[in-house]
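PROTOCOL LOG
Step 1. Enter all chains and additional molecules of the complex.
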Amino acid sequence: MIEKMRTGLADLCKKYDNIKISFSYQTWETDFLRFYQSQINYNIRRENVNLQVSIYKDKKPYSFAMSNPDLVKVEEKISESLEIIDSLPEDNDFVDLEKDTRIAEEHSVVNNVENVTLAQKIEILQKISEAVKKYNFEIYGTFIVNNVTNYIINSNGLNKAETYSPIMLEVKAVSKENQVTVLESFGSVSLEKLDVDKFLESLILKVQTAKFGVVDLPAKHYEVILAPRCIGEYLSYLTYGMTAGSLDQKESFFEGKINEKIFPENITLTDNPSDPDLIPFKYDGNGHLYQKTELIKNGVFKNFMVDNYYSYKTGLEENGANGSCLVMDEGDKDLAEMISGVKHGIYISSLHYMNFINPKETSLTGLTRDGTFLIENGELKNVVNNLRFTVKISDILNNITEIENKSSIVPFSENYGEFDISLIKMPHVKVNNFNITSSTKTI
Amino acid sequence: MKKLVYDIINKLNLPKIEFADVRLTSQDNEFIYFENGGFKSISKNFDDISLGIRVLINGTWGFAGTNKFDKTSIEKAMKRAIKNAETGSIFRRDKIKLSPHKAITGSYFFKPEKDPFLMKDDEKINYLGKIAKKLTTNDKIVHSYVYSEFFRQYKIYANTENTFVDSLVYDTKPVFNVLSSDGNHVYSRTFPGHMAGRRAGFEALEKMDFETNSEIVIKEAIDLLKAPIVEHEKADIIIGGGHLALQLHESVGHATEADRIFGKEISYAGKTFIKPDMLGNFKYGSDIVNIYSDSSDKNGMGFHIVDDEGIEGKKVNIIKNGVLVDQQTSREIAPLLGLEPSSNMIAVTGDNFPLVRMTNFCLAPGKGSLKDLISETENGYLVDNTKTWSIDDNRNNFQFTTEIGWKIKNGEIVGIVKEPTYYGITKDFWNACDRICGEEEWQYHGTFQCGKGEPGQALHLSHGVAPARFRNIAMNAKA
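Step 2. Run joint prediction.
Step 3. Record the structure below.
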């Protein structure tokens, strides 16, 4: 059925040779468990089939989407489009559709929506739930499995497919006494990589750290240790300014900075879908081959992330990079050594509700969440009420003094539209002069 | 489609199923976009149909959704929903029990003054193209865009209590934006702002008078390049309707979604500082603060005959004379708090699971015009047009930056300030409200993108507000 559709769409590209057509055809399934108070909230199964079609007649654009389409309906819609398109204005910036016909190396993909059963998920969660119960904690979170196949077919001869089937487990252990929360997560393309005992060991360590009671901290500048999830989230926000689109829209922090040293020597960031621990995405949304791209090398800004449309518009070479597989280079410090060197500071586990104030300046505000700890004389002490920061990401990077000598895989979910999962790989970092601007007074 | 829904709900009338409902949505979207004066795209998504089946078995929800409508796919979805509930009940300690509710039947069809889906593309494109050109007439404007999104949704809801309702609604969201630059700094101005969604057709654009407002907004964006910043540590602020809608949304609307009290949203959207024992006695705001949820008002995007579990649309007071008196609830949650269900369970499309959501969430008007309020303000700022928003996991600590502020001295506006930022704690902030403008200033503002749930659901909803004044608010946060 799918192959028939794929062939049919390629045939339509040939049939309508006076226009340029690009098809993005997607089958998407999710099996999605949410839990709270150490019990199920709901488990849902969804499956969707969608088609996005972009048509250009010379420079005149028209696009439409269809849910669960068949070839007859697609052709009808194309015919309707041709009646409309002549009357439309031109997009003067459009030059051509994606031309990269290179095919990525094949690798086998297991459909985890079929492979990981609800009963298996429940068994794992029951074990975790029992383990934290003795500390008077309950578990909240999500256990998600997706299976997605994208087909990209266009008039320039592209006919590509890729399938990925990621798994994401995010467990928040919440104290029944005072709502203190700690977080542990797992992300991979294989459930076999989930070592439940190790997962539990790490979670229980965090639960035990939460025993010292809650304190409030005043607004001022602190020395902080950012967990991999946090530095990863700041860097993800920073990559907005690395897109050719933001450069074109005059909102890029990196405008005019290619090959300039703007961060310390020890900062190296790549977008690397070939990293064996991450999801091996093969193509960007247009079908361009997605390969390892250096973004920051030893503090020097190296490359914008450039797609087909903005490549023509900005004159930058297209590279297919899109920030879905960020990897920050490790440093040379043990985490224990990093913590032991802090006299009075904060360990930040996770961030919440960040938003840019001025993207060109990389200024933003947001909050800590799910485990903020006071560090006193080199030791993790009290849990701290969640804090608000108002910072520039560029300042955070310039104030990094130490980087951990190992990395962690952090899963993130794209929560709008059809739920997608990505993994990034980050170490802990130590940052001076981190601007806390108020307390939430709550955990 | 009605027959399909009838057939499915009839098949779910099984002894082991304690309750079931079926939702089918069919929606159309159209999006027209211009950038820097030039046409970029027209995209249409027609007949986007999806179906969701929710069952309650052994006190546990099971759900399956699909956009495939062949017999096999629908049978598969029914079986999957049942299996999800049955298997999931192994991990369900507190069994869910719904009180019976009366059957409701009916239809509602909204009629826009000007149906965007019947208009010719040329007419819509030319209208927006004219605005797009106007946005490019000054060299200091380095980027601009204008777009409009048109939406209509037909929905059928049915449940095993014999409720069967269908409805058709239209929403429209037009926005334009300009970015000014002096070569070093950039400042943006947007119109009509963050909450541009309306229950309307194309007439929404015409009523917003983009042509006149484009000239005002371009001037403001350029003036921001030389405008001062706020120097005050604390100040009195008047918040304009467009931004106050978001302040209400974040610090009261989400905070009073009762599923958060029980931690059902901890994994993503977060919790709330509200505890069950605060109901009836917690002084959320000053005496003049009256806030309600009203899903029975057809003027807002949150109107419905029934919500997505069969509770009739209704008006519910949430905060009365400053005191927290009720919550936005579901049939599962309401009895846990000793409340009646408030008709706030919504799923954005058929294949999504319903959640406790805002509908038409409003601040009741007070008295007087905005002009009067400014004239009665000795020193302070009028702020509007959201730029940055952020609030904590418990909906307690918020910080907002608006694109522009107007400085008030001795009851008069004496100039503008750039990117004013204010922050506070929810309870303190709403208790600092000492004036709310009257009905003549009250209007609905709305968003298409209220995010909640996993998988995420971006909901259309409305907030009715009039500008209001808040005393002695902190304004000194800087990056």
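Step 4. Note key features.
Chain B has a mean pLDDT of 97.
Chain B has two domains: 2-224, 234-474.
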